[in-house]
Amino acid sequence: MLRFILKKATVLFFPCFIQLCCLHPKVLAEETVVSEVGTDALLPCSYPDTPVSKAKIYWQTSSGKIVHYFIEGKDILNTQEPEYNGRTQLFHSELQKGNFSLEIKRLTKSDQGVYVCINVPNSQKTFIELVVKDVEKNTTPQGNSTKETRDGNGSSQIKLEVPLLILLVLFPVVLQQSM
């Protein structure tokens, strides 16, 4: 009987597991940067063995949006996505040290996501997750606005929680019916 239940559970659970993994893929970032809407964020990327004169560094989102290109000592911004126009920069004084960190200015909620710093000549990639939170405000008893914390991750959590919730609700029902 126990073997039957385990077999049934495996048959029911496996498709749900596949759905969670495949429909909601998540690129694992090496580092997470947390900033607020309206502020600037520094996404770290370092390739110390890359000479600036031969560097081909591509910053893009995990979905392939072009954020910033740096090729052989020059910023190439004519192919940059419009939403990043005038908001990104590398620190040219740091490039000789192999520091290709990217600053994104005036963050918006749509900037949130995983960014990839690609060193083309060496086939290296660095994944950085940017979390953009709403501005913190709290209301004091006098009504003065100071800080109120809101989490900017609600929508992505719902996508994962709904299939899991369905699994947790349906699994006991199916087990009970099979007994």
From TrEMBL:
InterPro entries attached to this UniProt entry: Ig-like_dom, Ig-like_dom_sf, Ig-like_fold, Ig_sub, Ig_V-set, T-cell_Activation_Regulation
Subcellular location: Cell membrane
Broad class of where this protein is predominantly found: membrane
N-terminal signal peptide: 1-29
Keywords: Cell membrane, Disulfide bond, Glycoprotein, Immunoglobulin domain, Membrane, Receptor, Signal, Transmembrane, Transmembrane helix
Ig-like domain mapped to chain residues: 25-117
Membrane topology note: Single-pass type I membrane protein
The protein, known as: HHLA2 protein
Source species of the chain: Polypterus senegalus (Senegal bichir)
Lineage of origin: Eukaryota, Metazoa, Chordata, Craniata, Vertebrata
